[in-house]
Write a structure and sequence with these properties.
This protein is an alpha+beta fold and 478 residues long. The protein has two domains: 221 residues, PmbA/TldD fold, CATH 3.30.2290; 243 residues, no CATH class. It has eleven helices and 22 strands. Strands 1, 2, 3, 4, 5, 6 and 7 form a seven-stranded mixed beta sheet that branches. Helix 3 runs parallel beside helix 5.
């Protein structure tokens, strides 16, 4: 049985009557279906669902949070008791009182726009589609092939003591694809992508054209097996949108999360190098680099009607023509920094989690140059198409990435493959080397951005276009 709005309203009223200066109740129902195929056979068919209710209170200037998957009267009263006990405990050790930036009460509904609900697609149709993808992944040296499709539905209702009452139904659809090629005397080569996901229906899977993509991934892996090693030297790098999406996520999205500069969880999430006094001054990248956080972007995995603070979806600049200008905030972090809420970014993975600052859709803004023209401006360089391994320091300032696939650029055209390419850089230095962004912007989705203690895996979105970077030192790994 769904958790009704009246249950949430009654809980908020009860918490307020007991002295909470703020209270909200968030009811969440989630369902997930996935089908996977490996090497020509169905590997898995899964279906999961859960539902529950989370209650937050501010009492004695501190947060208290508790959650339950039961709706009987005794459980709900115990939920309120537990939230207040935790607020009392927090108040005894807190360094600063909770201050929430003001937001007008919100009312309304938000639903994902769908052409075909992925949960209504027959299982046989999904399996047949994946078997066709698998067949097109076959290659002389391909030893392992995997593909999958998945659907996610989240229904949420948020009621607050300030008069907000909003309901949302978010549906996401995605796919995963990987091939592994192996040849005697060569390092194995893999080509994969698990970030093919969008807030949309089954039409997005059809848009992906997984059958054609499988052939491209197969060819990339086969070519990389026999590719030579490049020369280890500074070179011009052109990054594909799917690679840049991850770079934006790690080097801009995370360090602009306001809870990092407030040191809410330094030991796990780390801090930042983008401090309040740097806003409007810090040179983050070249004048070609602008980055935007947008919770209103159609199809984005970070798109919503309201965040879990009840803040409506907004759009704000994080980097403007190379200058750092903004943060991702919750009402709490905006209040602590004395800022208005420029964009609501408080989100929780599920009903049993406390909302924390999470990315929405953080994107590199498109340029005006066609990709072909960007490529023609390279006499000698590399096109890096997809990330492989990566690591970053806890400030998101120093990072190291390797690539699955590297294409040689010679005289403005693609000319073969190389293998073993990696690079290391500092964030401002790397983005400062950008001398062109193409106009072929595309949106990517991430299913599992990890943050928080206890750990929460959040879905976020990132857009990017091809972009060119000059004189980036590369490393070569056998």
């Amino acid at each position: 049985m769904a958790i009704t709005s009246s249950v949430s309203t009654d809980l908020v009223h009860l918490a307020s009557s007991r002295g909470a200066t703020y209270a909200d109740a968030r009811a969440v129902e989630r369902e997930h279906e996935a089908v996977g195929v490996k090497d020509g056979a169905v590997e898995s068919v899964t279906r999961t669902s859960d539902r529950g209710l989370g209650l937050r209170v501010v009492h004695r200037g501190a947060w208290g949070f508790a959650a339950t998957d039961r709706t009987d009267e005794a459980s709900l009263r115990a939920l309120v008791d537990e939230a207040f006990r935790r607020a009392e405990a927090s108040a005894s050790v807190q360094r600063r009182s909770v201050r929430l930036a003001p937001v007008a009460p919100q009312r309304g509904e938000y639903r994902t726009s769908l052409k075909r609900d992925p949960f209504t697609v027959p299982l046989a149709e999904r399996i047949d589609h994946l078997l066709a993808v698998d067949a097109n992944s076959l290659g002389p040296n391909v030893k392992t092939r995997r593909s999958a499709v998945a659907a996610y539905r989240t229904r949420k209702r948020l009621v607050t003591s300030e008069g907000t009452d909003v309901a949302q139904e978010i549906v996401e659809t995605g796919a995963g694809l990987s091939v592994l090629a192996v040849k005697a005397g060569r390092k194995p080569a893999s080509r994969f992508d698990s970030r093919l996901v969008r807030q949309a229906g089954w039409e997005y899977v059809e848009h992906l054209d997984l059958v054609a993509r499988a052939a491209r991934y197969r060819d990339d892996a086969e070519a990389t097996l026999d590719a030579p090693l490049p020369t280890e030297r500074p070179t011009t790098l052109v990054f594909a949108p799917e690679f840049l999406a991850l770079l934006v996520h790690e080097s801009c999205g995370h360090p602009t999360e306001a809870d990092r500069l407030l040191e809410h969880e330094v030991a796990f999430a780390g801090t930042t190098f983008m401090w309040p006094e740097d806003r409007g001054k810090l040179r983050y990248g070249s004048a070609h680099v602008s980055m935007t956080a947008d919770a209103t972007l159609p199809g984005g995995m970070g798109t919503f009607g309201w965040d879990d603070d009840g803040v409506p979806g907004m759009r704000t600049m994080l980097v403007d023509k190379g200058i750092f200008v903004g943060y991702l905030t919750s009402r709490e972090t905006a209040g602590a920094l004395g800022l208005p809420v420029a964009i609501g970014s408080a989100r929780a993975e599920g009903w049993q989690h406390f909302p924390i600052v999470r990315m929405v859709n953080v994107s590199l803004d498109p340029g005006t140059v066609p990709y072909a023209d960007l490529l023609r401006g390279v006499d000698s360089g590399l096109l890096l198409e997809a990330p492989a391994s990566y690591s970053l320091d806890d400030k998101r300032q120093n990072f190291h990435f390797s690539t699955q696939t590297a294409r040689v650029i010679r005289d403005g055209a693609l000319d073969g493959y190389v293998r073993g390419v990696a690079f290391q850089s500092l964030t401002p230095d790397f983005w400062g080397r950008c001398d062109g962004v193409a106009d072929d912007w595309e949106l990517h989705g991430f299913l599992s951005c990890a943050k928080g203690e206890p750990l929460q895996l959040m879905r976020v979105g990132h857009g990017a276009a091809h972009a060119r970077f000059r004189d980036v030192p590369i490393e070569v790994r056998e």
